[in-house]
Design brief:
Elements (H helix, E strand, L loop, with lengths): L4 E2 L5 H28 L7 E2 L13 E2 L2 H37 L6 E2 L9 H15 L7 H12 L6 H16 L14 E15 L4 E3 L12 E16 L8 H30 L9
Antiparallel strand pairs: 1-4, 2-3, 5-6, 5-7
Helix pairs in contact: 1-2, 1-6, 2-4, 2-5, 2-6
């Protein structure tokens, strides 16, 4: 006899782990591609064609020059941002489902659909799949999905400004080859891309805090007492007509911003789940 109830494990940290893994893999690939483009030869006799095993080119083979290098860099950054947004939207969708289930409180969740014992395991899978489809997910932009989490479950998120500017940068790269137009700008004149980046500081034995600018983290720093890491804001400002030239450091900051967005979001979701699934307090007095 198949059960008509099932237990669900809600794990916001599992969502975070998946997002971190996917974003770090994306960063590795994107930065490797940017490095390869930067270091590729720029000689007049360097031609991309099928004979070199690069790709099948229709028409005159194109030589590697600064124009092609810029177009390729733009494509890499646009693709990386699109993939990063897909990862973040998956994180939002799974967070929504977790919050939907958590609001029901502790205990087993009843399937809304009757199970047909004659279908065996297939019937059970169909019922669970149908139950999952009942959990509505807000579609559309990342901002819409984050707003849905806030409006329905009170899951707060502090980085709306960063997400909005990332979307603007992505649209500019995708639709205008990185050339800023008025529609890309927050005020019609300038596009400010708000990002977050890792910053390392050294606290010396005499209490002074100084930034760590160069050298590997493992390098000895004279007089250092401890090494600290922070997530700090950083901005890139472009005027109408400017080109968004994304170098490796900026791309790393773009993806770091998305990563910490996922971390902040799942932390808020975990707080919500903990509050909803906490056992009721005993109101009896001794």
């Amino acid at each position: 006899m198949l059960p008509d109830r099932f237990d669900v494990t809600l794990d916001p940290m599992g969502i975070r782990g998946q997002a971190e893994s996917r974003l770090r893999a994306l960063q590795d690939v994107a930065l490797a591609a940017l490095t390869a483009i930067k270091e590729s030869p720029n000689a007049a006799d360097t031609t991309l064609n099928a004979a070199d095993g690069v790709f099948l080119y229709l028409g005159e083979p194109r030589r590697m020059d600064e124009g092609l290098r810029l177009e390729t860099t733009t494509w890499i950054c646009r693709s990386a941002l699109e993939d990063a947004f897909e990862i973040l939207m998956d994180c939002c969708d799974e967070s929504h489902r977790i919050c939907f289930l958590a609001q029901m409180g502790p205990g087993p969740i009843a399937l809304q659909n009757s199970l047909d014992p004659t279908k065996g395991l297939k019937g059970f899978v169909e019922a669970v799949s149908t139950e999952r489809s009942i959990i509505k997910v807000d579609r559309g932009k990342v901002e819409d999905r984050l707003k849905g989490l806030k409006d329905k479950y009170g899951v707060t998120f502090p980085w709306e400004q960063e997400i909005d500017s990332l979307r603007r940068a992505r649209n500019c790269l995708a639709h205008r080859l990185g050339i800023v137009h008025g529609e890309d700008c927050q005020d019609g004149k300038t596009l400010t891309i708000h990002l977050r980046k890792l910053a390392f500081t050294i606290t010396t034995v005499d209490g002074k805090v100084v930034p760590l600018k160069t050298g590997p983290l493992g390098s000895p720093v004279p007089g250092a007492a401890c090494l600290s890491m922070q997530i700090v804001p950083t901005n890139y400002v472009f005027s109408v007509g400017d080109s968004i030239a994304v170098a490796a450091p900026m791309l790393s900051e773009l993806l770091t911003t998305v990563l910490w967005t996922a971390i902040e979001l799942t932390t808020s979701v975990a707080t919500y789940v903990q509050a909803k699934l906490a056992p009721p307090q005993d109101k009896t007095t001794a």
